[in-house]
């Protein structure tokens, strides 16, 4: 029996990331939808999720005080106000799981004002289809049993890596933001498809299968990406001609700079939250 069977989870924040997790959790039936609550600032997003996924939206006080697990899913800039708005309703029996970019467990514990068990995580929106790449790290007061609970939640919606908390900035720039880099590539491929005269739906299907196929090859064949790339690249052929242009345009440098900048932004957001506390 799942250790979550009799637990209630409350999402504080009902935006893109909360929805991705709720969608994945409800789909995997990790726990009944009636044991998942959502609270948002205006309330309307939480209502939308309730309508769509069958979760419930009790009033904030009831949702927070009853929940065994509170998933903090507001933007980092809103966390101070959000926690101030709930802390009198919380207690040390509860587990707090944060999905916030840049924000440390110590910062959240300090805001809560008691020795709260906090686990910091970085999932991604592919949680919605059970394919998140999540990394997590325990805060000072989180026990092994708390980690087990968090692992169960995130394993239901993808793969999970346990890391040191400092590594979460790197994870955020790599796999937290990562889906957006892939979508951006697809946008560019679709633009190219239009310019070379391929019909939209046909191009979408071909691009999608190309990405799924390449991802499966990487996962299932155990070969290096460079080796797989070489298998596609016939000397003097079409791929070599295309890759030469990517090299001329600094493709690899652009990706490197992109990920490093996202990591730097996560670190900066962490410092900003410390300076306002
Ligand atoms: N989007 C992503 O791909 C990922 C996001 N994250 C992290 O997830 C968190 C949420 O991001 P995302 O879902 O994109 O953000 P959204 O802007 O989509 O959602 C934020 C939600 O927080 C709610 N909110 C704001 N203030 C409060 C408050 N005081 N009390 C209750 N609810 C509040 C908002 O309410 P209302 O609807 O009324 O405005 C909204 O529902 C961020 O910290 C981000 O770093 C992590 C991994 C990936
Ligand atoms: O863009 C952001 O800040 C969030 C964190 C990771 C993905 N989205």
Automatic annotation (TrEMBL):
Catalytic activity of the protein: L-proline + NAD(+) = (S)-1-pyrroline-5-carboxylate + NADH + 2 H(+); L-proline + NADP(+) = (S)-1-pyrroline-5-carboxylate + NADPH + 2 H(+)
UniProt-annotated location(s): Cytoplasm
UniProt keywords, alphabetically: Amino-acid biosynthesis, Cytoplasm, NADP, Oxidoreductase, Proline biosynthesis
GO BP term, pick one: L-proline biosynthetic process
Transmembrane segments: none
InterPro entries for this protein: 6-PGluconate_DH-like_C_sf, NAD(P)-bd_dom_sf, P5C_Rdtase_cat_N, P5CR-like_CS, P5CR_dimer, Pyrroline-COOH_reductase
Pfam families per the UniProt record, alphabetical: F420_oxidored (PF03807), P5CR_dimer (PF14748)
Involved pathway(s): Amino-acid biosynthesis; L-proline biosynthesis; L-proline from L-glutamate 5-semialdehyde: step 1/1
Residue span(s) of domain Pyrroline-5-carboxylate reductase dimerisation: 165-269
This protein's GO CC annotations: cytoplasm
Domain Pyrroline-5-carboxylate reductase catalytic N-terminal: 8-102
Residues spanning the signal sequence: none
Record's function text: Catalyzes the reduction of 1-pyrroline-5-carboxylate (PCA) to L-proline.
PANTHER family linked to this entry: PYRROLINE-5-CARBOXYLATE REDUCTASE, PYRROLINE-5-CARBOXYLATE REDUCTASE 1
Name of this protein: Pyrroline-5-carboxylate reductase
Originating organism: Aneurinibacillus aneurinilyticus ATCC 12856
């Amino acid at each position: 029996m799942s250790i979550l069977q009799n637990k209630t989870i409350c999402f504080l924040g009902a935006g893109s990331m909360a929805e991705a997790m709720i969608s994945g959790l409800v789909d995997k039936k990790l726990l009944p939808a009636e044991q998942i609550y959502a609270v948002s600032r205006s309330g309307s997003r939480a209502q939308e999720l309730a309508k769509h996924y069958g979760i419930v939206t009790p009033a904030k006080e009831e949702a927070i005080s009853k929940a065994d697990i509170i998933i903090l899913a507001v933007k980092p800039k809103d966390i101070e106000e959000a926690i101030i708005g709930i802390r009198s309703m919380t207690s040390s029996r509860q587990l707090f799981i944060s999905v916030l970019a840049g924000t440390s467990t110590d910062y959240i514990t300090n805001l809560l004002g008691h020795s709260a068990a906090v686990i910091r995580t970085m999932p991604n929106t592919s949680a919605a289809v059970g394919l998140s790449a999540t990394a997590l790290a325990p805060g000072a007061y989180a026990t092994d049993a708390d980690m087990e609970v968090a692992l169960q939640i995130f394993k239901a919606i993808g793969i999970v890596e346990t890391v040191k908390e400092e590594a979460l900035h790197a994870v955020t720039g790599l796999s937290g933001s990562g889906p957006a880099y892939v979508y951006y590539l697809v946008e560019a491929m679709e633009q190219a498809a239009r310019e070379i005269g391929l019909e939209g739906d046909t191009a979408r299907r071909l691009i999608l299968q190309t990405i799924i196929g390449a991802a499966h090859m990487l996962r299932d064949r155990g070969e290096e990406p460079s080796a797989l790339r070489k298998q596609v690249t016939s000397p003097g052929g079409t791929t070599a001609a295309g890759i030469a242009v990517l090299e001329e345009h600094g493709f690899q440098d652009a990706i490197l700079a992109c990920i490093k900048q996202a990591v730097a932004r996560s670190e900066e957001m962490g410092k900003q939250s410390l300076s306002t506390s």
